[in-house]
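Progress report, Aim 2. The chain analyzed during this reporting quarter is listed below.
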Amino acid sequence: MFKINNLRVIACAIAAMFMSPAASSAELSETGELIDGVAAIVNEGVVLKSQLRDQMVLVIKRASSANPPLQLPPPNILREQLLERLIVTELQLQRADRIGIQVSDQIVNDAIGRMAQQNGVAFEDMPALLEQDGVDYAQYRREIRDQIVMDQLRQIDVGRRIRTSPREIEQCIADLEGNVVVNSDFNLSHILISLPESANAEQITDAKAKADDIFQQLQDGADFGEMAVRYSSAQTALEGGLLGWMKGNQLPTLYTDVVAAMQNGEVSQPFRGASSFHIVKINDMRSADQRSEIEQVKVRHILVTPNEIIDDETAKQRLDDAVERIENGEDFGEIAKLLSDDPGSSNSGGDMGWSGPGTFVPEFEEVVDGSEIGALSAPFRSRFGWHILEVLDRRTYDNTEDLKRSNCVMSIQNSKLDEETQIWMRRLRDEAFVEIRI
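Predicted structure tokens for the chain:
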């Protein structure tokens, strides 16, 4: 183990790790600057030495700025861990590229905007703020884009295959009734010891013994974050296993019973998942109010979508005519059945049912918010075409039970997603051609 005090010295040491004595002269330019090279060949792509160096410096900087500073493995072990992470990232990005996943600049801007808002700064101030921390803004955007791409890929390759049965949901709701976990939020850290796919009895025994040994070291006073960095196979390993704050009713179902029996600051004994062993620590916990109310609105609308036959002006004129007919006494619902291009509501006379905040696209929601009950709107344009709408009613709705059910679905899916993602990522790695060059 080593502790970081001087990033400049460490950065030089890291650079030296990528150069053998025989090769060093070939990797320096005439000005003495280190020239980039290949750390690993990954299928048809590569991981560059510069990527690995940058990641090592970043992890070291984060570890040194943690409170208390986080101890890291020796440089050669840290390098292996980070290279493996970069290899798996490259495999995911290659897979995403093959199936055509693309992320627009606007999506990246939205993600950075949310982070800026969480930190209480303006979006346009983010480059300067990152520069103060020594982070290149262009590189930061690339990393955000890559993370969004990988999230979308996992949703396609893993998330869409996960199903929750009505029985699982009902059992989850029954289990949560009166459970203290539901009424709490948790700040958690996590160590994951993975099992090979189709692990045999000996491999399971070895993994269990490793998890038990880690737990014993923790009981003897070892730091949880340092043990996560050294031993965990989870994606959060190099962040000390930190999962951050999670609502109790959204915890993976695998954790629920374990966390329910724990106190603040306590570390769980190892417990088994489908393809791994887990150790969890409660860093902090707080009570959470579970009653929830939202403002809902009941709306009906008529949509006319411009196409090759109906241009924009004609679409609006059809709705102008519809407004006149409704004001002269014709039934809104009957006109909607005949005229509306919305397949989800036309058969029910344009009725969209009760809807909560954020249900509609902004241009539609703006008209809804500005409409009185029973008043017919003028035709307006959204990204879907031309609309008229009528707000039928408004109410304050206690959605606690709905939330409980949706949170159970999320909890079950999250529990399955963790396990399935580990299996999927190991399969990606096992099926890839990888040649380590350092």
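Confidence is low (pLDDT under 50) at residues 1-26. The two ends are 22 Å apart (CA to CA). These observations will guide the mutagenesis work planned for the next reporting period.
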